[in-house]
Amino acid sequence: MSRVFVHGLGAVSPAGWGVPALRASLKNERPLPVQSLARPGWDKPLLLRIVPPPPLRPAFLAHPRLRRASPITHYAVGAALEALGQDADLIRSGGLRLGIVTCTLTGGISYSRRFYEEVLQNPATASPMIFPETVFNSSASHLAAYLGSSAISYSLVGDAGTYLQSLAVAAGWLDTGLADACVVIGAEEPDWTAADALRLFDRRAVHASGAGALYLKTLRPAAAPVELAAVTDSFAATRAPHRNEAARKMRAQLPVGAPDELLCASECDNPAWNDWPGELLTPMEILGEAFAAAAAWQCVAGCDAIQQSRCLAANVSITGQSLQAIAARFVHPNSLKTQTRTQP
Amino acid sequence: MLFPPPKLPQPRRIVVTGAGIITAFGAGWKINAEGFRSGRTAFRPVTLFDVSRQRCKIAAEIDLPADLPPNRLSRGDLRRLRRASRLLLLAGAEAWNQSGWTPDGRLPLVLGTTSGEMCLGQEYLRQALQTPLDFKRQAERVTHYLVQQQGINLANALGVEGELITISNACASGANAIGHAWQLVRQGRAERVLTGGYDALCHLTFAGFDTLQALSPTPCRPFDAGRDGLTLGEGAAVLALEDLSSAQRRGAEILGEILGYGATTDTHHLAQPHPEGSAALAAMRAACASAGVTPEQIDYVNAHGTATPQNDSAETAAIQAWAGARAATLPVSSTKAGIGHLLGAAGAVEAVASLMALRGQWLPPETSLQIPDPVCRFQIVRQPVDAKIQTALSNSFGFGGANATLIFRRCL
Fold first, then answer.
1. What is B261-409's CATH topology?
2. Are A210 and A14 spatial neighbours (Cβ–Cβ below 8 Å)?
């Protein structure tokens, strides 16, 4: 199996456009301000954290394919282009076959909701321009079109942990030569239906939106190298009583940890990590619940911490809302730790 | 560990040891094989939702069996299963039983769908809009609407545990799922995988295709000169994949071998293929390269063949560019002529149809074809016919430019 290195990071989040904004908000350790969103027929507004407008309108929004696209595509493309950096030109020129994996739970939910509302009013007049944008793979398609990339692309749908599964999918493509490089994107968009649905399960949760991206290759980068060291198995956590056991099995596949390592977790109180000796970061408490995008932000935050020399390794742990417990481990390649935890 | 996976000295050969299918022809291998072989059509007026204000009023609806096969779901779980989950469970149980597998060890599921249990999303939104203060059953609707829940239901029904991957690459989802599962076992990242695709008819999707005027008001006629659109259907198909030596060791019946897989992205337009089918051509070539075969070695092409003017002309261009001189004698048909376009299930159902043709040594005809499109230089199968075929290629293309091709070989 080829080694897999992180060549770029991208983030569009309630903290703003770009990894520096994400880094600054996480460093600040204070939850970002909450906005309210009207729910039709209900006095109480729903709470969410939305992505602020970019300081400058991104040039990519002028592309014909992106003009009508929904916010999830704007976020996904923004994060991906930041992660790809100068390689975007190489991809456009045909010099690099880019595999694209996008992950989402709710997909283009705002257009899906809008289109179905139109169908309920009168199906004969529902907009044919909106419907194609409702498919889960619209973001990946628009990104591929923007980059002129005709290589393999998957859109995976599932809970937050699906983002970590996607890293393994991309690693497989790199290993078998299906792609020269891969960008793995987690993205979600704001909509009152998603915020409303989330509230049904957790009244304290704040819905958020945005995207995160990791750009992967098998070549070791010259500067600020980060290596994908592991993605654990996915352990079923579909029912609440099983979640702690699933998380324990997931943790058992990773090294025990060290004080100079970071844990980026989807929750701060998972018993599987009670004995974690290093720093703990829970981006969701600051940014909100954004499912696949939140998982991507966790990975971006972990890799960024290694690049910024804040730690030598970062574990990303996700106990998803409805599917799985799964984790990934990123390391500085010079400090590759192979120690694995003994099963209790 | 999903990464890094164990390293194999060389890729494995992957065979299918179980297959389950449900379409408008019915549930199970036998009735579907008879339907595909005879060129039956299964279209009728839509009864699942109101289509009175829409241009198209027909689809290939399924009469769901009253009973589900024996499974491990609780009475409460069974009560909550809706149409897409039931379709998937019916196909999954058939594949599982045929495979002879037991629920020990980890078993990844790799599934494809476009809309999961969209009917519940529709119910959720209708209730939220019409009676906004009524939250009764809304949480249940959300849980079972989520795309992963149908896979979770199947895993729980069979009593298996392992990674669940759901690929939503529009109408190529089922083929992408099978191709990805094939790669997982081939590269040693899994010992066996249950894979396939499913989609149930729902109003949102039906109305969506209708607004695009992509639906024909009459039963679809792929590759017909007068074709005017697709007809939607619903269904599911599931395959049990394992490596050849494992299947031989346990004396399993082998339904066929998956030889190759290719996947590409068409960047031309979100909802239309490149007129020359360039990405489709690249997918077919990639599948042949991974299979180690040439077009001369392909005995039958199960085309994507939706019967929209754009798809069929682009696919025709792709097939003819790929096949070259072989095109003149190459049998091609689209099984959508009988059961409609099954969206996320299409690639998986058509994979099973291809395996049926290879096992039975016949070609699936398009009996509703009236005047073949004169640009088609290949042989469109129009009548039921027996044939000696060893290798079949199946195309699946979708919105967003998702293109996937699978290649199957007969196993004696």
1. Peroxisomal Thiolase; Chain A, domain 1 (3.40.47)
2. yes
